[in-house]
Specification:
The complex is a heterodimer of chains A (about 400) and B (about 170).
Chain A (H helix, E strand, L loop, with lengths): L5 H8 L8 H12 L1 H22 L11 H58 L5 H18 L2 H5 L18 H14 L2 H12 L9 H7 L1 H14 L1 H26 L31 E5 L13 E4 L9 E3 L1 E4 L2 E4 L5 E4 L4 E4 L9 E6 L7 E2 L18 E5 L4
Parallel strand pairs in A: 3-8
Antiparallel strand pairs in A: 1-10, 2-8, 4-5, 6-7, 8-9
Chain B lengths: L4 H20 L2 H18 L4 H24 L3 E4 L10 H19 L3 H11 L4 H8 L3 H28 L2
Helix pairs in contact in B: 1-2, 1-3, 2-3, 3-6, 4-7, 5-7, 6-7
The chains are: A alpha+beta (about 400), B mainly alpha (about 170).
């Protein structure tokens, strides 16, 4: 009789043969009479047990699971969203048609206005005088002067209308030049308007005339004066100083917290110190960054209190160096790269990761959001002899304060 | 509803998370995917809940892997905040991470089919269910599992030996 196959032995161990099934009875009979297969069965048992133990080492700690009602609620919500999506999809067709109609009307109006403007420009270029345009130019200064309070009546008693020689033509007429200046001034930024209006208002600075013009056009200068006066107010000054002191106090607190960071982690908390010396590579000190960086071939430690911000840029994006990072989400870590690892200490984050296959030099970009630290950590130089397995390198970042 | 989904959920949620965890290697993500699987199951109400759940979970895990690959091609920026959860002993966590890494590397040495059969068995599926899930003949499930176990054990031993050589 042939020996039992490995598959049948594993199926036997796994209880895959139904009780009293022909296959099960056949295996049992053979095992009773074949010492070789009994030995192989023992080997198979070891494999089954060892494989189970290996997998058990990679089992998540499922401390809690959401209530079934929560899952039901999510399913109901998804159903509702789907129904709503169908309705919205039908509604959106109508909305899209309405918006298309509006767009069509708007485009028609724009085209008509554009055609009219172009036609008018062409006609003016060919010598056609636009009575409406002339009238507008004539009326505009008058209206403006009425608003000013007939200021120009004193400065310049008469203001003849523009000739019909075209808008913007250089007639050599000083009145026309003044008028053009006012037209330009009306559309100019406030600072320019203020400067021009001030010169106009100066002759009557002490009088009632031109007061309205001054109140509008000279506003920036007066505003600055007012602001200076307000800033000099003791109450406001006190408030501002109080806020400043508060900010300084907060900054001091943050700095003190940083300054209190150990430049080295206690040996009892730091597996780095438990490593044999031969596994350490020379320390690399990165000046101009926030961290002193040490590298070696084992666990690395990064002490990054507070909020951290780490990023990773793919080598395709930034081929000169590879940036690695970790993200901390509700106490667990999302690996940006394979084998990114981190854990929280009492006041620090421990980080370890595997260097990419082509990266002898890599960068950790870490930011402390409060103070916006950014530090780059480089490990070994590209020329360092690194075996593939040894790329599983550590890095230790010790906060040394930011420049 | 054809099935008592509350009972199915209580019974299978941990198995599903364990199964997914060995694909995505992130507990929170595994839980998210498991919950998404159950949400879809409640909306679909399939005939065979166990088989359906693992089929959908496996597909979600594969999609997740593809997304992770795509994500690596772009700048990824994370803003994170310190959380209250503090590891009791970082060294313990680290050792655990080493063990998981070794398991992960060993599993990576298996073929897709061997790995899937092994993980389905470990998640509690019977031979018939593994056969239905993977398309293997029922008689081939034992053979596949025996090969997968042997390769897993050998790969894991090799990983440990390699680690020891670097100490």
């Amino acid at each position: 009789m042939p020996h039992i196959s490995d598959g049948s032995l594993h199926a036997w161990i796994d209880g895959a043969f139904p009780k009293d099934s022909p296959e099960g009875q056949s295996v049992r009979k053979h095992l009773d009479t074949c010492p070789d297969c009994r030995s192989r069965l023992e080997d198979a048992r070891h494999f089954v047990a060892e494989a189970g133990e290996i997998l058990a080492a990679a089992t998540p700690d499922l401390e809690s699971m959401p209530a079934f009602e929560e899952i039901q609620a999510r399913a109901a919500e998804a159903d509702q969203e789907e129904d709503h999506g169908r309705t919205r999809s039908r509604g959106s067709l109508r909305a899209r048609w309405r918006s298309f109609e509006r767009l069509a009307w708007a485009a028609t109006v724009v085209l008509a206005l554009g055609a009219g403007w172009i036609g008018r420009t062409v006609l003016i270029d060919r010598g056609w005088s636009d009575p409406f345009h002339e009238r507008a130019l004539d009326q505009e200064p008058v209206e403006e002067m009425e608003a000013v309070g007939s200021l120009e009546d004193e400065v310049r008693p008469s203001s003849p209308p523009l000739s019909s020689e075209g808008f913007g033509a250089d007639t050599g007429d000083p009145d026309r030049a003044n008028k053009d200046e006012r037209v330009e001034n009306a559309a100019a930024p406030p600072s320019r308007r203020a400067g021009v209006s001030k010169t106009v208002a100066e002759p009557d600075a002490a009088g009632e005339l031109g007061r309205r013009e001054r109140s509008d056009a000279v506003a920036p200068d007066e505003l600055e004066l007012e602001l200076d006066a307000v800033a000099a107010s003791p109450d406001l000054k006190l408030d501002r100083e109080a806020r400043l002191e508060e900010n300084v106090a907060q900054a001091d607190t943050s700095n003190a917290r940083i300054a209190a960071q150990p430049t080295a982690i206690h040996p009892a908390q730091d597996p780095w110190h438990q490593l044999p010396d031969r596994r350490r590579s020379p320390a690399v000190e990165e000046t101009g960054t926030c961290f002193r960086v040490e590298t070696g071939w084992s666990t690395g430690v990064a002490s990054l209190p507070g909020r951290i911000e780490l990023s990773r840029i793919d080598a395709e994006t930034r081929p000169e160096d590879d940036v690695f990072g970790v993200a901390v989400l509700d106490g667990s870590l999302e690996a940006v790269l394979e084998s990114v690892w981190a854990a929280f200490g009492a006041d620090s984050l421990w980080v370890r990761f595997v260097i990419g296959p082509e990266a002898d030099v890599f960068t950790i970009r870490a930011g402390h959001a409060g103070l916006e630290w950014v530090g780059e950590a480089r490990t070994l130089s590209p020329s360092a002899p690194v075996q593939p397995r040894q790329r599983r390198g550590p890095v230790r970042l010790v906060p040394i304060g930011c420049p | 509803m054809r099935a008592d989904w509350a009972a199915v959920y209580e019974e299978m949620y941990p198995d599903l998370v364990r199964f997914l965890y060995r694909y995505v290697w992130d507990e929170d993500r595994a839980q998210d995917l498991a919950q998404e699987t159950f949400v879809r199951a409640l909306r679909t109400d399939p005939d065979d809940p166990r088989s359906w759940l693992f089929t959908v979970a496996r597909n979600l895990a594969r999609d997740e892997a593809r997304t992770a690959i795509r994500r690596r091609r772009h700048l990824t920026l994370f803003r994170t905040e310190v959380v209250d959860k503090v590891a009791a002993d970082p060294e313990d966590v680290m050792q655990r991470s080493d063990r998981e890494q070794a398991v992960r590397l060993a599993l990576d040495r298996l073929s897709d089919r061997d790995r899937e059969a092994l993980l389905l068995w470990d998640a509690g599926l019977a031979y018939d269910e593994i056969s239905a899930q993977t398309g293997l003949a029922r008689g081939a499930v034992g053979t596949t599992l025996s090969r997968a176990r042997r390769r897993l054990v050998e790969a894991h031993r090799a990983e440990e030996d390699r680690d020891a050589a670097h100490l």
